[in-house]
Amino acid sequence: MTNLSPFTSPFIAEDTPTMGGILTEIDNITDLSDTRRRDLKSDVRSLCRLLGKHPSEVPANINWLHVRVRRIVPAAHDISKKRLSNIKSGVLKALALTGCSRERSDWLRPPSSSWQNLLSNITDKHDLWKLTQFAQYCTAIDIEPCQVTDLHILGLLKILTEESFTNKPDQVVVNAVKTWNRLRAEIDDWPNINLSHPPRKKEPWTIPLKQFPSSFQEDVVRWLHRLSNPDPLDASGPMKPLRPATIKHRRHQIQQMASALVLSGTSISNIHSLADLVELASFKDGLRQLMSRFDDKPTEAIHGLAVGLKSIATHHVKVDDVHLKEMQHICQRLNLNVDGLRVKNQNRLEQLEDPNSLSKLLHLPNTLTRVAQRSGLRPHKTALLLQAALAIEILLYAPMRAGTLSRLNLERHIRFVGTGRKRRTLITIPAAEVKNNRDLHYELGAETTQLLDQYCKVARPILLRAPSDYLFPAQNGGPKLESSLSRLIKEMISEHTGMVINAHLFRSIAGKIHSTVAPGDFTTLSHVLHNTLRTAMKSYAQFEHQSSVRHYQNSVDTARKKLMPKAKQKKRKS
Length: 574
Hints:
- By secondary structure, the chain is an all-alpha fold.
- It folds into 4 domains: 19-106; 113-186, no CATH class; 209-336, no CATH class; 346-529, hpI Integrase, Chain A (Orthogonal Bundle), CATH 1.10.443.
- The protein has 24 helices and 3 strands.
- It has helices at 19-28, 34-51, 62-69, 81-97, 113-119, 125-140, 150-162, 169-186, 214-228, 244-263, 275-278, 280-291, 300-317, 321-336, 343-349, 355-362, 364-372, 379-397, 402-406, 446-463, 482-497, 506-517, 522-529, 533-562, and strands spanning 414-417, 424-429, 440-444.
- The chain has a 3-stranded antiparallel β-sheet with strand order 1-2-3.
- Mean pLDDT is 87; it is low at 1-5.
């Protein structure tokens, strides 16, 4: 795409006034006091800074600004909502004083004459809307209607994704393609070009199990039945039934491996049983195909899949010792090459590298509690603030999985010890209700217990719609959905800190917090997270590395201060 000046967006008309020009015009208004002029210019510059753009790149149009300012999160910029409101008020005043437009049509780029001629054939206004942005984009890059290709559809998707005002860029592009192709058949003068829909972000690649031979499907059912209904007299079988979520995961692993084997060149008709997946050559081919989706590198999920297939080979297919030993070696090598944390988690944890951001998160429960005490809030809003505060407080001191948190039961899992200011909360969750089948035991201190009491007294009755023993109840009396509680936590963190952190990340955050305070103490982390020591060391070693680097750099700073260079003595003239 050509470099557009002064704007980088193809949808903005090049002659649209800029905020840079507004700054100049404010200087030319003679009836403003020096203080008022300074404040208006400061507000304009502040808003542009919040938008991440130079004033010369920001259109001086009230409509353009209104859509984008709504998406500014004050906490992300360490300002209050009141400060943002004052900035917006000052900018609107500056735009009004300089006669700026508030019409959307005044900042939009008009399509070229050839595109306007094409669009003039459209009688339905909805069809016209669906193709206007495509016409604007093509105009900006000098593409005529008869020259459009699928590459321009992908370009439109890219630029719409980067534009903050489009909520669903994928759907906008799909609608444009559908409308273009339909009008091609309805309008005689329409270019004879068929456009393709852009690929989905996550194109499904696995093959449904029902497409595999029936003998393979039956073998899968037998294996999963053994996992869900173990025979107590079978010494080689599982000790207790696996949870439904685990059974579903095991089934998906089988589907992934079978699909990868087909994609690697094996005919689907030749996969008759689970034995075909764990045959050594097939096992390696399937794993290579899976790793090819991740730059030929193993991932934690691929390692888990390999271990699951090894279990099938051991207990279901019952391969010989030589075969099994080779599979074990493969699983070990995959495990050695897997990084501790997923890339997405690593990127999100980088938000907490700033001590100020980590401080915001650590003190967020207190912040939400203070906000909930403000007058004028609706009771339901107050209740949700306290619910989020308690959920985040528990995750900080008792970093459990989000599903476990959402199902906490006041009768089964929670009891209190002590009295008065020394009253504490004990959380005990049996292994059968935990993902990794380990009992969870946590003790929450007096301050957290006071927050829990406040929530149960003030907030929970407001949120309760039916009798329930759950700490976080749903309207039907059951536990609040994991997704609903996670969404509440994520939205509150975003609104009050500006960071993107979900409930699942708190277990990793626990490793970061403890490694910052007590580097190398993996034993404590393994107990808190109820992981094996080996898992804790592998998952959180990166924090130890970061702490060690900082420790070394502090040593360099200390050495520099101690070993200051001696000042050179000037030679005396004879």
